[in-house]
Every structure is written in C-alpha cells, then in structure tokens.
Design brief:
Pfam families: DUF3263. By secondary structure, the protein is an all-alpha fold. The longest helix has 17 residues.
C-alpha cells in the first residue's frame, strides 16, 4: 500500500548538514530520475512506493530542483538533461 500524499515525505525538505548540500529528499529525486524505466507506469509506481508522493508532486519538486545550483553540482549530467528536455518542451509551445 502506498503512503498518502500528505505524509512527511511531502513536507519541505529539511536542510542538509552543510548549507551547500542537497537534502536527502532532493538526492532521492535525482537518483530516481537517473534510473532507466522498463515500461509505462513503472516510474510512477516507483515514485509512489519509494518516495511516498504523487507523480504530480514529484514533477513539481523536480522542476524546482533543476533550477538549484546545488543540484547541478551534485549531478550535472541529469540536471542538464532535464533542463534540455524542459527547454525543448517550452520551445514547442
């Protein structure tokens, strides 16, 4: 059974030990985004089961995270890929 969207996972991220470090939740978002997905629905299922949040909330958090320079330092490949995808979608609108 999955956790409701209002569980502590959905609370604001607690500051990381160092002011220049990402929170545990932010690192988990990036880690999930790095993984390959075997088919439709697998990623959404993992978001609910592993993070305890809805896919909509996941993408809200992820979109804010890719603007954070700490995320870029932590995982430049993933963050730059996500920025390119976002920018390409904006260009088609």
């Amino acid at each position: 059974m999955t956790a409701p969207d209002h569980e502590p996972h959905d609370a604001p991220a607690a500051p990381a030990p160092g002011a220049d470090e990402l929170s545990v939740r932010d690192r988990a978002l990036l880690a999930l985004e790095r993984r390959p997905w075997p088919g439709p629905g697998a990623k959404e299922r993992a978001i609910r089961e592993e993070l305890g949040i809805s896919p909509v909330r996941y993408y809200q958090l992820l979109n804010a995270l890719i603007e954070d320079e700490r995320a870029l330092r932590e995982d430049p490949v993933t963050v730059n890929r996500l920025r390119r995808v976002r920018d390409a979608r904006r260009g088609r609108r």
